[in-house]
Model the fold of this input.
Amino acid sequence: MSARAPLVLSVFATFAVGGPQVRFAALANHYGRAWRHAIVAMDGRYDCAERLSPGLDVTFPGVATSGGVLANVAVFRRALGQLAPDVLVTHNWGSLDWAMANLIPGGVRHVHIEDGFGPEEATTQLRRRVLCRRLVLRRSTVVLPSLTLNKIAAEIWRLPPARLRYIPNGLDLQRFRPASELQMRTRAHGGQPPLIGTVAALRPEKNLSRLLRAARLLREDGTPFRLAIIGGGPERPKLEALAAELGLTDVVAFEGALDDPAQAYRALDVFALSSDTEQMPLSVLEAMATGLPAAATAVGDVPQMLAAENRPHLAGKDDAELAAALRPLLRDAALRRTVGAANRRKAERDYDAEVMFRRYGELLASPVSTA
Done:
């Protein structure tokens, strides 16, 4: 009888659809039954489970939380004993209580993936969280998908460099591909203004209010456009009310969350990112792979991610600057094509999912010693 595949216990603050969750699903699907998976979502949401292949060996063990850190650590310690994973993988601050629970003699191998911060740490690191990460993660393998985060982990959290792994996000370049020539010609002869699109969870740190206010500035100076906001989340009622207040309801469409946004990207002319905080946003990679130009706030690794031709269209965290980044792209179809093609070339060179899969596979198969 063959040995059972190793068990990976992955803990998320939420398993709703988002960048870390989509990346996990891609990795799990790629490696199939090479690993067994147990997935815990701290908030009980498992929307992203729909993206997992039916043939995977995956369970969703219910682990109740009490609300208090010490009580939760005790609960999670018992759960670790019962589940007996070969490796524990935690994601971001919201799952760090599990890493604390693992700080015992004989604890399982631990990999922590840090993708970025919520609005409470958008401008500065909270000292208590810095100290907690510094203490709890010293013996863990810590994966950072952005150079900005890698620097934070080394210089602010003061984690041992040997424990850090910089693994940029990657994506399926066949699935996310530019629109066909026929689609481009049909769009060009359709007589519609250029379509700006953003793909984001509607949360405060995404600051889609900034994008709406930038759109109002574009409308005031006569720049033609339409705007599609793709994604769901708690900010939607507020954003819909703001769109009405700004007189934009005839040009703004709230599309909701899509199971597969690849086709939606191919309908766009320009991608927009208005976030206050990001590290290596998957949406920017998806837009680049689709051959789109991007107008974006210069947050995290975004300036390094985009092609050099796209960097003039970066903006500060300011409505007028974002409008200024969008304006030339909306007014010049040839510029859109040139910048979009450069972004696609950079995605092909630097962000192929196969490289990401290989590096995560090596990490899970042979993590560093916990000694």
